[in-house]
Structure formats: structure tokens, C-alpha cells
Amino acid sequence: MSYAYLFKYIIIGDTGVGKSCLLLQFTDKRFQPVHDLTIGVEFGARMITIDSKQIKLQIWDTAGQEAFRSITRSYYRGAAGALLVYDITRRETFNHLTTWLDDARQHSNSNMVIMLIGNKSDLESRREVKKEEGEAFAREHGLVFMETSAKTAANVEEAFINTAKEIYEKIQEGVFDINNEANGIKIGPQHSPTNPSLPGAGGAGGSQGSGCC
Amino acid sequence: MQNMFRSRSWFGAGWGRPKNLHSLEHLKYLYNVLSRNQTVSEHNRGLLVESLRSIAEILIWGDQNDSSVFDFFLEKNMLSFFLRIMRQRSGGSSYVCVQLLQTLNILFENIRNETSLYYLLSNNHVNSIIVHKFDFSDEEVMAYYISFLKTLSLKLNAHTIHFFYNEHTNDFPLYTEAIKFFNHPESMVRIAVRTLTLNVYKVEDASMLAFIRDRTAAPYFSNIVWFIGKHIQELDTCVRNDADHQSQNRLADLVAEHLDHLHYINDILCLNITDLNHVLTDHLLHKLLIPLYINSLTSPRKQSSAVDGTTQSLSRISLTPRGSENNSPKVHDFSTGKVSCVVALFLLSQVFLILSHSPLIQTLSWIILKTDRSVFEKGVDKLLEYYEKEKEGRNSEDEACSRTLSDISSKDSNSSKENILDEQPNMNITDEEKQKLVASPTEGAASIDHPFLETVYDALDCSENDYASLFALCLLYAMANNSGVTSDITEQVLRPKKSFISKSTSASKDVRYTYNTFLIEKVLNIIILSCQPSCRVRLVTLELALKLFVQLVMCDGKNILLESHRSVIETARTQSTALLRNFYKSEEIFLDMFEHEYCDMSKGSLNVEWLCMDSAILLPPTGTPMTGIDFTKRLPCGEVERARRAIRVFFLVRNLVLTLNGEVETQLPLTNPQSCVQIDQALDLNNSDLIACTVLSKDGTKTRRFLVIDILQLILVEPDTKRLGWGVAKLVGFLQDIEVTGDKDDSRCLHITIHRPISGATTNRIPLLNAKFIFDDNIRCMAAKQRLTKGRIKARQKKMQHIARLLEIPGQSGPPSPAFAGQGLYATRSAGRGVRENRPLFNISRGPGFAAPRRESPPGVIHRVDDSRRHREGESPNRISNLTKENGRKENHSRDSSSNRVRSREGSPRMPRPRSEEIPLKLIKKAPNSVIDMAPKIAILPRPQTPRTVIEPEPSTSDENAVAKDLNVSVASTTSEETSFIAEQLNKAGVETV
């Protein structure tokens, strides 16, 4: 499946803020939670189109691995983008942002694009963190900010795609060293812009299949 | 809900598809789809993918809502369909495989019901999926596959482990398949493998761990160790070939990679699995840390003989690998080579900063600090053997080799007493003896006995540059602070030693402190060198040297320095002060630089672990900022940076002296934040100068405020509704940070920008306020402008004077700077408003058109004098009277004399009047007594009152110096005697604000 670039993302934030749900919502839109069914996943990939270029996003959730320092360290380093997620209905998840950000800044490469996400925007009645607070935090730390809902899918597309756009701009500006795969960016096997196909479906051809098994 | 799902239908005409997606019926329907499409083809793969997606969703729903769903899934053995699908070669199965793996991921990650999980795992299908040979060349398949394994590993516990590890067949596919990818080129895959291994090790299951140890540990660990070795050889090559900083990115990756390895090893070691740790430690020591890292430390001078010995022994090891499992033919490639000393020191520092597993660390530090050359030359195995013997207390044994070993050890213990200076007590010792101590030749002896330590010591020499010195300091610091090293190894060498000597005459015991004088002298050399004008020691090296220094000589809360060493510190202090004096006022922005550097430094002391994560320090020290290297980690470039460096050196040495004396900083920062007016503070503004104004901000909002100008601050207040004559501060800014410009179209208006003060807390550089101020008339506007402009100059002058005193610039002996202490006056007053309600703070009764605060001097009065001139011409006799006045005023709650005088002539720009920046004496407190009296020269001497002069209004803010020079001709010429008594009182005291 051909792409111009592959961007690797990580999702960080306290447990229970809905990281894996955001991931699944973005990579597989089918899972619209109903009956309070929350489904998440730790990894997902999806093709998007920016500037008529096919860009593949690979998203790695780091949940459950915080106990091992070597793991979090490496994850940060290998990513071009990070979604820093908090839960708007739980203030403590917002209060921990600084710690997460410090960690991210310390371990990641300096060009990593960080998007601040206030998740669960559908639960307006239980809101504990005002939107303005999120905006202020983002402004102060130079992040892009967005409130999302993994449940209603509100802004989920935008969150991932805007992050990708920013990375893409940085590549155009020459900030990222794209030849260094350690930065979480990979150049596609060939630069052939194809038609934007269905998310996740890509253009898997028979050729790949023959190699399988 | 139903509607929503129908509208999102992915299928065309349903084959009797049930309406409710979350139901057993739907799963039955999907089962039918799978049964009818057992062969994957171009035509049905879309359908299959959709079915697999739905299955995941229904199963999770069922797991939480309806157990019959899971029963059906198991009853129909639907996992076997999965296997059948993935085993087919045809029809774009990689596309289907990806969805299949993702379905499994979702399944295993979201299942909450333990029974469901057990059922899923029970029929060994999962293990069949694990061992299935997917097309791993497809990066997507690879990513989903490894995520699947990782997800499974997160489900491991003492119960579930048995579904994956088969005790009878000695089979553990989850683990053995995963570690095949441990060196996969894709970093995310490697990370997943590491996560998985750690999750596996974490499970407390003896037989599983035995399997790991017996069947996999040796090859897996030896592979890791081999790859680390390979990496650092690449790293070394990169450093050697890059004197011009061309491949910083590559180097950064290699360093980060090494850190990843070490952290991973540390994470394993920290799980405390004795057997595993033993194997891992063994591999690390024998194959990597000793042959490659430590052996690279052999000093080039004596290399010839030592290297021969080492290479011989190493080749011996190569021929007889320790475990037959070590079948990688390349394992020993690197053992014949060495990396450069600089790289070895850097890497060892990282080892000591990250790992703390005692058996490993203890061995390493013993080898570095205590190894005898004769033993070392026999090779790694002998070295370790010797260490083991040493550890067991050098038991005498009958074996032939043990005799020689014990010979060596006894020699070692003797020589260490003779050759290391640190045995000397620092008390009750004559200067003569001290001289002898200092002079006694130790280098030669040390080098014979401790080849590695000697290399480290040699590296501390920065007469040429500090390239290697920084790493030597890192290593020493890291060793001294590693929790895995016991004190008996570091004591004397890296930590002070405390011993009790019983006196023969009495039963009492004397405490005797000793420290490593040889090392201290090396470090002192670095410190002294750093204080020289054009030295090649980077700030970071100095900071680390000081950090280590403090640890070496501080014991029980006090320093145990010998007199001779103390005097070297004093020299360093004098020289660093003198160095900075050269730059005083060398730049227009000296004050801003000074405050900025202080602020930068206060952000926290050097973090050595972070320092050793920075690959930039691995390249030879450079001066140019174009490398992107931090200022502290390179040499200064240009005059401004040299000034910055001098400021930093001054702060660092000053801090060292304070620490050694057990004192706290009382003179810095220049602005004491606690004594400043804060927002929302209520202030007694009776009899104060208030200028009414309307603040028109950029967004068009208008607010009515009163402008108050304090010594250092500009305050915008609104009337306090609770108390007449009081005001509440709504905005405060520092006068030194303001910019004032008139409005060319409206003479009643000023444009005022207040920049944010430099502070460590925020990086926000948006101005605090950028607004148009509209005054009642142009007279008030002019008055405000003059006061603001003068206030800015004066606030800056005060701080400059304070710096001058810190730098012991002659003529600066006077009371502590208002900048630091004086502001407290205001705050104290306002804080104490309850009891002193009636005391006027500012004079408000004045004629129309004049609204300047009382404490502000009339426009044009310049209080600053050229320093040298003031020194020459003596000091103002008015100072004490002013001081007393201010003091008295405070106590009497009356300031009539001054305020009346001011009031009567308020507004006349030519009118001289007492300055109001005096410092109340009660603000000056004695600092805690110092342990060692190095204080006097640091404490700020009182200075005479700055002379008053009268000048014409001077609107310019820029040319302070010229103004000051021109106008301070009539400075009073005698030093008053009153001044000197205060000077004495303050001599030993720091200054504190109340």
C-alpha cells in the first residue's frame, strides 16, 4: 500500500481518559459506542490525504506500560506526533498534564508535534475543566488544542488530521530530518499519489498477498 | 439506536441480516458469512473484513451484556475460522490478516470477563496464531502482529501464563516468537518486544522463569549485549570522524539508543528476578562492560604493556566463550577493539547513572577505583575472580593462584595507605604538615596501582580543554551517587570519611574527617581555571565540578576543608568577582543579562542524568552557537557571551562559598518577590501621589485607574470600596521593564508597554500590558511621563548599585540595596495597615496637575553617580540622617517632616528634597553565623547614601551614564563617621527583608 509519508503517533495521558477509544474511533470509525460499550485498542493505522498526498498514520497507545521507564522513553523518541489527552470531567487528569508534557519534552525529539486533547466533550453536564483552561494551557505551552468526544466522534478526525498537517508543514519547512526514521517519519516506498481510498482499506494489492503465509 | 445502525449499514442487500447489530442473532449471521466464505478471494475479502470487525464488536458487547454470545462463539469454534483464513495464500490475505489481527487485539484488550478470556485461550488456537508465519515483510502486518503479542502479554498473570507457556512441552511461543524481533529495524516493533519481555518476566511463575533462564536467557542476553557493543562501536566511529559536528543527528540517535538499552537492562534488573539478573549481569560484565568500556580507560601512556595483557586475555576469552549458547560468531568482534577514552567515560557515566543493580555496580566501581594493574593485566576473568576473592574477605586458600592474589591484595592495602593523601586528618595539623601533604607526590604511585582511576584523574586536567574532564566528572559524580555502591568502596575516594579516634588519655573519642585531597586538588584546578578570563572550561564543567566538590568535602552538614584548600576557594571567589567586574556595565543590557542569568540558573541545579543524555557534549567543545548546542555546554562566542559566562561563573562560585559556609543566599535575586506589591493587595494611599487615568487597552476596553509609582514598581489601583483612601492593586509591573512614549496626536496620552519580568516560571514573553493611558490633562500626562521615565532609570540604577556592591566595586559600601530590601518597606507598611491605618503612605494633598507619588523624586533628579567618582569624592553625609528619618518615621507612624516639605513644593522639578528610598535599619537582619568565616568578603557592605543632585528635567531614559557623570559634581566630600559604624555592624551580616 503506497504512501508518501508515514507518521508515527503516540497517545499519552492518564489512564481512563479515553486514549484507546480515540484511537479506535479514528482508525475504525465503525465503533461508535452504544449501550455504554467502550472499546479501545492499542494500535491502529489509517491512511489520510493531505495536500493530495497519501499519508499513513500509525498510532501507538502507550497505556499500561508506564511502569517501565525504558518503554515510555523509547515510545516518545520514535514518534513524530503526540496526542496528549485529558478528561474534561476529571480535573486531576488536567492537572497531570504538566508532568506528561515534561516527560514528552524530555524524551522526544524537539520537533515532535503535540496536540492537546480534552476528551469526553459529550459529557457537558459533568464537565470539570473549562474549555478556556485547556486553551490557555495549550497557548502557554505552544500546543494545538481541541476538545473531542470518542463517543460522538466529534473532532476526532480533526485532532489526528490537524496534527498530521502540522507535521507535514514542518517537513515542508525542512524542520524534520525525514531521512532519519528515528523521528517517527518514514518516506513511502514510492511517491505515487493515488486516489484517496477508504480509510484503513488502502490499496492492498494481490502482490502483497502472495508473500503471506 | 436501531435507526442509527441501519443507516450506517455497510452491507448491500442483507442475507437476512438481523436488525440489531448487538445481538446473538447478528453473531449467528456473521458465523454463516464466515462458513460460506472459507476461501478468501478478491470478491469476498471486503465482506470478510467487515464481518471480522463486527465480530469483535459483538463479542465485546456480549462480554459485557449477554453471555450467550460468547458461548456461541466458542461452541462454533469460530477462532478456527480465523486460523483457516490466515493460512490461505490467495486473495489479498494480508489485507484480511490485518483485520483479523486487529479483531483479536480488540478482543483481548477489551474483554473484562475472566471466564470469557480463559475460554478464548483454552483451545490453543491463540498459540497457533502466534506461531503462524505471517508476511512480516509487510510493515502493516508486522505492526498489527507485534501489537497483538504485546496485548496478549499485558493479559499475563499467574493463571493465564499456563495458556501460553506449556510446561510439558517446554514451549512458550508468545515469548520465543516475540524475541525473534528484538532487533527489528522498526523502532516501534523493538519497543513492543521489550514491553512483552518485561511483562513476561514480571509474572511470578517459577517454572516459566526457569524456562526463560535455561532456554532463552543466555542467547537472548548475549545477543542484546552484542548489539549494544556494536552500537557503541558505531558511536565511537561517529565521534572520531566528526570533529566538525556534521552528524549530530546520527550521534544523537546512537546515544539515545544506548540509553534505551541501558534503561531496558535496568528495567529487567529492577524486576529482581535473581536467576535472570545473575545471567544478565554475567553477560554484561564479561562481554561488554569490562572488556569494552573499562578497558578503554587504560591510559594511552602506559598502554603498551597493559593492552598486550588485555588483548591476550580477551582473545583467550574469545576462544572459550562462557556458554555454549553463545553461538553468535560475531559476539567477540568488538572485544579486541577499544573505544576512545572520552566515549568510554561518557558511556560509563550513563551506566552508573542508570543502572543500580548492586552486584553489577559494586563490581564495576570496585574495578575502576581499586583495581591493581598487575591483576588487571591478567585479564577479565582473573579480575572478576580477584574481585570475588576480595569480596569474601581474602580468605587464604591453598590453591597456587590464591597466594599470588593475596600477595597483591596485601600490597594493595599497604599502598593505598601510603599513597592516597586522604588519610590525613584535617584538624590539629600544622601548616607545615599541610604543605607537605599537598606537595607529596602521589601521581606516580597512584598510576601504578589504579590504572583506571588514574585515567579518570588524568582526564580531569583541563589545561588544554575540558572535553574529557566533563565526562570524568560525570563518572565520578555518578559513581558517588549510585545507590548500588556501598560506602566502603566510595569512602575516601568519592565521599568524605569519618572516623573515630580514641584518645589515650581520656575515654572520649575525637571525630576525624578525611577526604580525597588528591581529587580535590584536581577539582580545585578546574575551578580556578574557570575563573580566568580566557579559559577553555565550559560552564557545565564548572557547575559539575562544584557539585562534586561539595559532595567530596561536606560531611555532617559542614565542610571539612583543609586550610590550604579553603584559601584556594577564596582565591576562586576573588578571581570570579574580578572577572565579572571587567564586564560590569560593559553592555547596555548588563542588568538584564545579570537578572536573566540568575533566573536561568535558579531554574534548578544541573541534572547530571539529563546532561549525559545530550549527545552534543560527545563532540569536541566548540564555541559557535550555530551548532545549536546549549550555551552552558559550549564556550562563549563574542563579548556578550563572555559577559554572560562571567556572570554565571560568579554565581556558581558564590553559591559554592555559601554552601560551604552553610549559609543561604540573601542578596539575590535583585528583586525580592516577597517584598513587591502583589495584585489585589490593598494599599494605604493616603497622602500618596496618585494620577488618575483611563487605561485603553488594545482590545478597546477602557478602565479607570489611579497610577502609583513606587520604588521599583508601577501600580495601577482602583479605590478600595471598604476603606477611604485605600486602593487595591489591579496591575503591577516593574518600572525597569516599562517603555513610555508620548502620543503625537494627543498630548494627554501616553503609550505604555510593561514587559514581563524575567522569570523562570514562564516563558511567556507577551507584554504584561500594552495600552494607551489617557490623563485628565496634558500637565498630568507630562508629570506621569516624567515620573515613569525617571522611575525606570532609578530602578535600574539601584539594581546596578546592588550588583556593584556584590562585585565589591570600590565606593559601594553602603546600606543594602533598596532594590532588594527597600521594597519591603512598602509591603510591610501595606501589610500592617490594620494597626497603622492613619499613617499616610503617599501624599495626596497637592495642587491640581500634580499627581506624582510622594516617594518619587522630582523629575530630573539623578541619584546615581559614576562609581569611581563617588569613590574618589567621598560619600554623602546625608545618608544617616535620611536613614534615621525613615526609620523614625516608620516607628512613629509619622512622616510629616518629609511629606510636608514635599507637599509644599510639589511639582517643582527643580526642588531638591530628601530621597525616599532610604532603607529602614530594622530591615537589616543578621545572617546566621557561618561555620567557617569566609563570609565577610561576601556580605554586602553598607554603602553611603547616594548623593542628591538637582538637574533639569531629563526625559531621556537611554543615556544614564552620561547624565550621571555630568550632574554629580557637587557630591559631598567626607565619609561620615556614622556611616562607618553601620558598616561595621553590617560587616558580617547578610541582608534580609522583612
From TrEMBL, chain A:
PROSITE patterns: RAB, RAS, RHO
Keyword Transferase: no
GO BP annotations listed: protein transport; vesicle-mediated transport
Protein transport as UniProt keyword: yes
Family under the similarity heading: Belongs to the small GTPase superfamily. Rab family.
Compartments, record wording: Endomembrane system; Golgi apparatus
Source organism: Exocentrus adspersus
Protein keywords: ER-Golgi transport, Golgi apparatus, GTP-binding, Lipoprotein, Membrane, Nucleotide-binding, Prenylation, Protein transport, Transport
Name of the protein in question: Ras-related protein Rab-2A
TrEMBL record, chain B:
Region of interest: Disordered: 302-331, 395-427, 837-920
Key word Hydrolase present: no
Superkingdom field: Eukaryota
A Pfam match: FPL
All copies of domain CLEC16A/TT9 C-terminal, residue ranges: 249-382, 419-813
This protein's record includes keyword Disulfide bond: no
Chain ranges of the FPL domain: 52-201
Keywords: Autophagy
Family: Belongs to the CLEC16A/gop-1 family.
PANTHER family assigned: PROTEIN CLEC16A
Name of the protein in question: Protein CLEC16A homolog
Organism: Exocentrus adspersus
